[in-house]
Predict the 3D structure of the following.
Amino acid sequence: MARVFGKKRRRSRKKGQQDLPLKKRCTHGGERKGAGRKRVAPRPQVKHRRRPVLGEDHPVLVTWRVLDHVWSMQSKRSFRVLLRAFRPAVERFGARITHFSVQGNHLHLIIEASGTQALSSAMQGLGVRIAKGLNRLMGRAGKVFADRFHAHALGSPTEARNAIDYVLGNTRSHAQRQGRAVTSHVDRFAVSHEQLGDETAWWRTFDDGSPPVAPPASWLLEKGWRRAKPRRTAPAFAFPA
C-alpha cells in the first residue's frame, strides 16, 4: 500500500464510543488552588477601589490604621500630638471633621466633604501632620499608616446614627470585646461637635483648648440622625479587622 504524504489519517471511531473524562492539566497559570499573588501584609488591607461619589457636605465614616511599630495613640503624649494635627485640619480643603475616636492603633472619623477629591485632599493633609508628629515623638522617620484609609459614605439617618454611636462608643466596645472593665461612660478619646460647649471636656486640658472638631453642616449629622432609633447592639461597619 502506497503511503500518502501530506495528509493525516483519520482514526476510525466506533459508533457510540465516547472520550474518557480526563482531568485538564494546568501548567502555565490560570485558575487553580494557590494561584495568584500571595498576601504580604499580615492582615487584609483596604482594596484599591474607586472612592464613593460624594455630594456637597456628604458625611463619611473614615477608618485609618497605623503600623505595628507606632506607639499607642491612647497615651497622653500621642493624643496631644493628634490634637495638634486635628485642630488645623478641622475645616480645610472642603472637608469638615465633626466626630473622631482615637484607638490604640487606628482612628475613626466622621467627616463632611464637598466631594471625593476634597475628602482625599483633607485626609492627605491630616495624614502628613499625624505622621510628622508621631515620628517626632518616637524619634524616628518613615511610614506611619499601614494602608490607605477606608471610607464608608453615610446615606440615611439610620446609617448616620449608627456611625455616631459606633465612633463615640468604640473604646467601650473594644474593652468589652477584650474582657476589660469599663470604668466610665464617658470616652475620653472620642470627641464630637456636641462637646464644644463643655468646658470640662478632657481634650481641653491639652494645648490651647481650640476645638478639634467643627459643627456639622449636613442635614444628616445636624438633625437627620436624631430621627433614627438607636440600636440595641453595637453597629458594625465593614473595614479590614
Remarks:
- The first helix runs from residue 76 to 86.
